[in-house]
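Record type: monomer structure entry
Structure origin: computed from sequence
Chain ID: A
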Amino acid sequence: MRAAPQAPTALVLAGGGSLGAVQVGMLLALVEAGLDTSFVIGSSVGALNAAYFAGDPDIAGVRRLADIWCGLRRADIFPFSLSTLIGGLGRSNGIVDPSNLRHLIEAHLAFDRIEQARLPLHIMSTDHQGFGVRLSQGPVVEAILASSAVPGIFPPVVIAGRPLIDGAIAANTPLRVAAGLGARRIVVLPTGYACALQKPPQGAIASMLHAVTLLVARQLMHEIETMPPDVSVYLAPTLCPLAVSPYDFTASRALIERAYRGTIAWVRKGGLNRPARACELAVHHHHGGQDQERA
């Protein structure tokens, strides 16, 4: 089933650590459905996925992105050991060296500057005063690193003299930015959050990433509720229940497959013609903790 052509349409990808794998399944389904995307905006891990998609926005490109995700291990993003902890404690701006993440981006991204992407690309970050910063030109690797610089985990990235941090802090799902750029239809790809964990995440990084996913959901709910009436927002379905920590990279293949199936079903049921409701992302939990498909 192909979606009716609509324009201008923005694709907005939110943040969520390892749960970014969910967005790959959503992208596979939306590309198959024929979604006509005018431009892409990404924040945090959504910036990484947005950049790959903007550079290669077809089914073959998304499948290559899926292969990258399925090969990822935690150490590819968060190289963490006793030595890194000791070194991080000596720095005030982050406990993880971003070199591994930089090498990952450089190894797989096919363009150097944001404006070279096949689809117009915008990456969101946050300055030290909490204001959202849209990066629409310049070195794409630096922009992705800035958008992904979770405070306390990765150090800020200086761009044009401004230290920038994770886009989730100010504008994780920048719907108003998309509307300001001319979008009248906005399709949001959320990562969701682990609503079915049996116990709180263990460790500083896992706890911080889990907190960010909760922040993302609340920000998105607020933005949906306050959008101008002439802009329609569509929300690809999150996985629920979900018992995967955003610090766990072992479940990428399963997350991609679940998200693909869920998004295909959503499209077939008219999801791309049914505006989102903020309550779809209301914070909740499941006592059983068992992953299953959400109807």
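Annotation 1: The two ends are 19 Å apart (CA to CA).
Annotation 2: Confidence is low (pLDDT under 50) at residues 1-5, 289-295.
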